[in-house]
Amino acid sequence: MTAGSRVVAPASGPLRGRLRVPGDKSIAHRALIFAGLGQGRARVRGLPDGADVRSSLAVMRGLGLQAEGEGTDLVLRGAAGRLSEPAQVLDCGNSGTTMRLCCGLLAGQPFLSVLTGDDSLRRRPMGRVLAPLAQLGARVDGRGEGSLAPLVLRGRRPLAGGRFVGAVASAQVKTALLLAGLQAAEPVEVVQPGPSRDHGERLLRAMGAALDEAGGPEGSHRVAVRPGAPLELVDVDVPGDLSSAVFLLVAAAIVPGSSIAVEGVGVNPTRTAALDVLRAMGLSLSVQDPALVGGEPRATLRVEGGARREVALRGVPVQGPAVAGLLDEIPALAVAAAFAHGATVFRDAAELRVKESDRIATTVAMLRALGASVEALPDGLVVHGSGGAPLPGGRVDAAHDHRIALAAMVAGLGCAAGAQVDGADVVDVSFPGFPLLLEQLRAGRPT
Question: 87: buried, middle or exposed (CB in 10 Å: 19+, 13-18, 0-12)?
Fold first, then answer.
């Protein structure tokens, strides 16, 4: 077995337990990065201890943000929009969210900054963020005709206003432009073909930003920000990450008789499309103990398999505008589909091609390595389910992608020979301790 590999043995019985997952990365990134424009002092609790959020924290500290503490609980002192010119290149690691949001933040800062990342991040296109920022008045450049990192930004204060119509619904692009708009002389309006994650809008409103938001024709979505008084930092209690929880829900779905409860998970309605897909596939999934904490809804997600002795999932179509809200969950949903009855067709997911890996190609390769029947499409994939039978199992290359590694480890539970996942350490990007958590669920111990 190669270094960094992990073998996941087939499940010998149901998975059982109550547990929590790491905090939501999307909210954590925004809490840290928005502090660059806010004033005052606030506490952020429940930060995930993954590499991506550590990248955002390191970048913001490199810009002069004062953050006291370590781990999951920090006290931030806002920079009130006046960050410091960094003496070093800012390393975003593997985090596209860090890079895109910081582009919007730095566009309105009157100094030079350089953003880079690891090999994977330097291959991911940034043009959809950089082009509108240049129209607002920032000077931006990069490799690949200005679309690839390292990125060089010389910000402008104030930026100009403007209206931008996006071809795809992207929360990262939207949030970056809203951050720039808060540093503009005139309003900035973003129109996208459908809604996307609204964590940024919720937090900006709580901080006092003036936002206008409305739906449009054919399901389009519009949000505009007006520059105004300085933002005020607010305490943030980060809920559990729904994208991480979905891997555990799928694990319970493919191991008959499993009963698990994942507590404190964020159930923001812009994020729950994956739960709708799992219910449509036949998973007995309930949402319990709902609460609203700091403007973000959270709940306990419970899968109750009862005494079932076979996988009862069925294939469903996954396509249309809702796909924008479940892109990160498609590798996990594809694992569920591999054990279902019938075919599951994923469409309208071309955005997966430019994630940490080409996630259409790597999801297909992962499932084929384990013995599943799967076809790649230009904008998705078709997974032919096993009808509830175990897959043969095999050896998977995680392709330096945390979600592929997590999906392969979950799939291994339902394989006759388990799964060897090469490069499994990459799960630390979003879900440190995931292998141990699986073992605790196998043993039926609360976690």
Answer: exposed
Bridge partners (DSSP) of residue 422 are: 397
Is 376 a member of any domain? yes
Claim to verify: residue 349 and residue 217 sit in the same structural domain: no
Which of these, 407, 409, 344, lies nearest to 374 by C-alpha position? 344
In a domain, 230, yes or no: no
Q: Give the three-class secondary structure for 110.
A: coil
Looking up tokens 């709940």 gives 299
Mean pLDDT by 10 residues, the chain (447 residues): 84 95 97 98 95 96 95 95 97 97 98 97 95 96 95 96 94 97 97 94 96 88 92 97 98 96 97 97 96 95 80 94 93 98 97 93 98 98 97 97 98 98 95 94 77
The boundaries of the domain holding residue 203 are 25-224
Confirm whether 212 is a catalytic residue: no
> What is the amino acid identity at position 305?
G
- pTM reported for the whole predicted model: 0.94
Find the catalytic residue in 24, 52, 198, 328.
328
- Are 172 and 256 part of one and the same domain? no
